[in-house]
Amino acid sequence: MPRSFAYIYDKINSQNERKYSIKATYYEIYNEKIKDLLNPTNKSLPVRWNRSRGFYVESLIEQKCDTFKDCLNLLKLGNLIKIYKI
């Protein structure tokens, strides 16, 4: 995933005429349960649907990522939560 993040931010940085906003979520689906890896207090999150948004995971934390490093830090945090079951 870090190479994908680098590619995305390289493309964004090469586009001077446009503004971009990047947001990230990080979740795990295991045994039909969805766990938010950026908010370990939630046990299992429900999947919802509505006409304007389509399918989405309710109460999923969404973080703004202004830089490549911000994305990497979220990835590291989510991995720590996943490994150590924080």
Give a description of the structure.
With 86 residues, the protein is an alpha+beta fold. It is built from two helices and six strands. The strands form three sheets. Strands 1-6 form a two-stranded antiparallel sheet. The radius of gyration is 15 Å and the shape is flat. The two termini are 22 Å apart. The model has no long low-confidence stretch (mean pLDDT 93).
C-alpha-based Rg, rounded: 15 Å
Q: Which blocks of ≥5 consecutive residues have pLDDT under 50? A: none
Q: Using DSSP, what is the number of strands?
A: 6
Q: Report strand order across the widest sheet.
A: 1-6
Task: Give the DSSP E fraction (strand runs of 2 or more residues).
Answer: 15-25%
Query: Mean of residue pLDDT?
Result: 93
Shape, per Cα inertia axes: flat
Number of helical elements? 2
Termini Cα gap: 22 Å
Largest sheet: 2 strands, antiparallel
Order of helices and strands: HEEEEEEH
Helix content: 25-40%
Sheet/helix structural class: alpha+beta
How do you describe this structure in short?
With 86 residues, this protein is α+β, with helices and mostly antiparallel strands. The protein is 35% helix and 23% strand.
